TrEMBL record:
The keyword Coiled coil applies. This is ABC transporter ATP-binding protein. It comes from the Bacteria. The keyword Endoplasmic reticulum does not apply. Residues 510-536 are annotated as: Disordered. SUPFAM superfamilies: P-loop containing nucleoside triphosphate hydrolases. GO terms for molecular function: ATP binding; ATP hydrolysis activity; DNA binding.
Length: 614
């Protein structure tokens, strides 16, 4: 493959640290590189060096003649006086840019809902970020550098971006390097991974799943990385291997190697034990929303219905992810759960023992302790905390969340954004709520710290409700997903993929809103009756019937867990059996088929009940 650009013996120092020392690497035609590493280790700095925005103290960056390089970094600022159209396509006539399929795809994928003539100074921060990304992607580049491109994109937007980048260049052409904490995106887009650590850059083949496998193997062979970090990554690998098959499609080495590494790693969560603990702490009732609707008056004197006829019976130990576009009503729904929002219609019932805590996107909980040291803040909360069935001191919990001994004596105000985020979570957990709401918890965290946070949440026995655009995190820490679509609350037995299908149907079946009416592409897309699917979101059962159905769902899930264990034992029995005893093997096979048929029947019943529950 032809070389596009590269750095040779790069050395860079800042006043307080050496960032890179003797780093050599390059990007070739067809490379799709994900850059990972701890916050502050130099991921963004590396991209700026390669893109020519920053000069190294020693070494050099070379770019092949004629190669065009574009970059989106976290501080890109567009002229606030420009309109959306001017920022994205410049002064080109409409017939000129509209004839370019790449530009059409970018406009419809990122800014279709924005007024084409709106000034950038009038837009929100998230909208400006989308315009900046669209402006970059509308250009013709041979190499693109993206620094946190998924920020301010919802799940649908992240999926579109992954698809756009996958199809932007022909195979084995163009180059891409991306820094993001979105691990699903890394796996969907990248063919190689660079880990930035300890003043160097280490390459790995494959996306995030492949990187985790190789990193575990590297740590095991070298035996120089702390056992804590190695075990954490092994657990992360176990989740990846047990997850969707697509996650393991890209690694090009033997899957047996992964199985060998994780054969003694337990499942991420003991759901039966966590449910038992949750019931003992919460009682039978958590929060029940029964046929709840919420409406708000509009400026023109009308009424806007945000949620309608929502029934949601939250169970002890439930771990639910909530999806929906910005403005769909997710915050209103959570407000009903916490009591911050009162329903216009319907009934909200809360259990007597419920203690709700919310990890918000703001860090207001830390304002009053900004001058205090980290160790003092946690010491004032509790002396012990139960995790993995063991008592842990706050200091041990801080270590588990990546704090070093030096950082324990650091004032809270001097912590980085990611460190404050982790401290915020710890302070909430030390207050021992039994219902925890996480609102975009992955903000400001790198992939290592996300894995550490998820590992801690695995052992938390309460009810967990998560709102996030981070698809990987949702699938990792929750057991079921729901979506707020057109005011309805819809159960998603098919997970995020089903949500994306429903969101697509809703868009194509609904006329473009007035905000995007002046966008030349606002009304594009095939006409269909796709929105019809969202009407099915009305729960078919309510009250006692819904409770009975939910109990049956729980019973089925427990039975499935037992039968799955049975299948594994039968497989082991078959492997240990005398392979020349055909009659004995036939008997074992018959038993295996019987258990598998029972599993299939239970899964069908589970799906039926899930649909009835909406």
């Amino acid at each position: 493959m032809a070389h596009l650009l590269g750095g040779e013996n790069l050395h860079l120092e800042f006043p307080t640290k050496t960032v890179f020392d003797g780093v050599s690497l390059g990007i070739d035609e067809g490379d799709r590189i994900g850059i990972v590493g701890r916050n502050g280790d130099g991921k963004s700095t590396l991209m700026k060096l390669l893109a020519g925005r920053l000069q190294p103290d020693e070494g050099r960056v070379t770019v092949r003649s004629g190669v065009r390089v574009g970059m989106l970094d976290q501080t890109d600022v567009l002229d606030p006086e420009l309109t959306v159209g001017q920022a994205v396509v410049g002064d080109r006539d409409e017939h000129e840019w509209a004839g370019d399929p790449t530009v059409r795809d970018v406009v419809s994928g990122l800014v279709k809902d924005l007024d084409w003539d709106a000034r950038l100074g009038e837009l929100s921060g998230g909208q400006k970020r989308r315009v900046a990304l669209a402006a970059l992607l509308a250009g013709d580049w041979d190499v693109i550098f993206l620094d946190e491109p998924t920020n301010h994109l919802d799940v649908d937007g992240i999926t579109w971006l992954a698809r756009h980048l996958e199809n932007r260049w022909p195979k084995n052409q163009g180059g891409l390097a991306v820094v993001t904490h979105d691990r699903w995106f890394l796996d969907a887009v990248c063919t190689d991974t660079w880990e930035v650590h300890d003043r160097t850059v280490e390459p790995f083949e494959g996306g995030y799943a492949a990187y985790v496998l190789q990193r575990v193997e590297r740590d095991r062979q070298a035996a120089t990385v702390e056992a804590k970090r190695q075990n954490l990554m092994k657990k992360e690998l176990a989740w990846l291997r047990r997850g969707a098959p697509a996650r393991t499609a890209k690694p090009k080495f033997r899957i047996e190697a992964a199985n060998q590494l994780i054969n003694d790693v337990p499942p991420p969560r003991d759901t039966v034990e966590l449910s038992r603990m949750a019931v003992s702490r919460l009682g039978k009732d958590v929060v029940d929303l029964e046929k709840v609707s919420v409406s708000y008056p509009t400026e023109d004197g009308g009424i806007r219905e945000v949620l309608r006829d929502v029934t949601w019976l939250i169970a002890p130990g439930e771990r639910t992810g909530i999806l929906g576009v910005n403005g769909a009503g997710k915050s209103t729904l959570l407000g009903l759960v916490t009591g911050a929002v009162q329903p216009t219609k319907g009934r909200v019932k809360r259990g007597k023992t419920v203690r709700i805590a919310t990890l918000t996107q703001q860090l207001s909980e830390l304002d009053e302790v900004a001058e205090d040291r980290v160790s003092d803040v946690v010491a004032h909360r509790r002396s012990t905390y139960l995790a993995d069935g063991k008592e842990m001191t706050p200091g041990q919990l801080l270590e588990r969340l990546g704090f070093t001994n030096e950082q324990l004596s650091t004032p809270v105000k001097d912590l980085s954004g990611g460190q404050k985020r982790r401290l915020q979570l710890l302070m909430i957990l030390l207050d021992e709520p039994n219902v925890l709401i996480l609102d975009e918890p992955s903000n400001d965290l790198d992939t290592d710290m996300l894995a550490a946070m998820e590992d801690l949440l695995d052992t938390w026995p309460g009810t967990l409700l998560v709102v996030s655009h981070d698809r990987y995190l949702l699938e990792r820490v929750t057991d079921q997903q729901y979506a707020v679509i057109d005011g309805r609350f819809r159960h998603l037995p098919g997970g995020v993929e089903q949500y994306l299908e429903l969101a697509s149907q809703s868009r194509t079946g609904t006329a473009a809103g007035s905000a995007g009416a002046s966008n030349p592409l606002a009304a594009t897309g095939p006409s269909s009756n796709g929105a019809k699917g969202t009407t099915d979101a009305v729960p078919r059962l309510g009250g006692a019937e819904a409770r009975a159905a939910q109990k049956e769902v729980g019973a089925i899930e427990r039975k499935l867990a037992k039968l799955t264990g049975q299948v594994e034992r039968i497989h082991s029995e078959m492997a240990a059996h005398d392979q020349s005893d055909y009659e004995g093997l036939a008997g074992i096979t018959t038993r295996l088929r019987g258990v598998e048929e029972e599993i299939e029947e239970l899964e069908l019943r589970w799906l039926e009940l899930s649909e009835d529950l909406g």
